[in-house]
Write a structure and sequence with these properties.
This protein is of the alpha+beta class and 368 residues long. It has helices spanning 2-21, 27-37, 52-62, 77-86, 105-111, 183-195, 202-217, 228-233, 243-253, 284-294, 297-305, 313-318, 324-329, 344-362; strands at 39-43, 67-71, 98-102, 115-116, 138-150, 173-175, 238-242, 259-262, 270-278, 309-310. Strands 3, 4, 5, 6, 7, 8, 9 and 10 form an 8-stranded mixed β-sheet that branches. A two-stranded parallel sheet has the order 1-2. The termini are far apart.
Amino acid sequence: MIGRTKLAATASLVAMLAGGVAQAQSLAELETAAKAEGRLSTIALPGSWCGYENVINTFKAKYPEIEYNGLNPDAGSADELEAIRANKDNKGPQAPDVIDVGLSFGPAAKDEGLTQAYKVSTWDSIPDDAKDADGHWYGDYYGVMTLVVNTDLVPNVPQSFEDLLKPEYAGQVAMAGDPRASNQAILAVMAAGIARGAEPGTAAAEAGLQFFKELNDAGNFVPVIGKAGTLAQGTTPIVIAWDYNGLSWRDSLNGNPPVEVIVPSDASLAGVYVQAISAFAPQPNAAKLWMEYLYSDEGQLGWLAGYCHPIRFNDLVEKGAVPQELLDKLPPAEGYAKAVFPSLDAVNANSDAVKAGWDSVVGADVVQ
């Protein structure tokens, strides 16, 4: 009888929290409901991205009762939204509970009804311009677009986007994603446009597409998604990627081959990513608990250890919560001081223009 009473109470709590009142409950009650669900499904979180391997492992150690299910780690932001659409009526393990997408994809997902509102307990320390007022999406971390170079194969390291057009880099330059679907690659096009003096938005997209057309026509562009393996193997000895990815690849390769990560002298573009919970999450309480963890001091410092600047970075520094050894591992401030943070409207306009124009202007089919 006692067991049935406890089971009924747990079921009632799960239903109540799933109904959207989790913020009114304690963390302990949310933990109970999440453990009762027993699983968390994420998508597009490779271990080398932003320190996610340690972030995920710490969460799993903290909540061993919750099975961690990582879907399609190499997916792009557009793939994440499609996974929600495709699994609206599916409560199985292939349906993602949460997404981590580029800034422009958060509002788009909300407008399409693909997200649900939830405000983490540290909500007030997230800058207002980096979150949806209703709690449908919220910035998690940001980085700067860089050139990641295998210096065994490229001894004369390029210092700018314009350098990449030089004949010496024939068959060497790649992007870290498909610009028709990957936020990272879409913003790489914007960065190239900014390097040519264009304003963030449609103008930068058009200038950036022209740059990549020239790069492709010159035979310098490699239409393969660049990552640590292709960088090391020499398939893509120069990859345009976020600083945290390049620095993580550098560390993982441990000098074999040696890698340099360069903030281009003609463009320093910062990009914000956002988190959101699927409106159709099979495990909504586990999703909320995951968000509470990510936006706690511990979760934020986990991203910082992976070279990402967490969205609560200023708050953590002001509180003295960032260990000095972490601060000492961050790249030099030069190159970051001039970083451009494009507005949401500019990011959206760039995204639409790049996805619409890549095939017709550049004509390179980027593949895995």
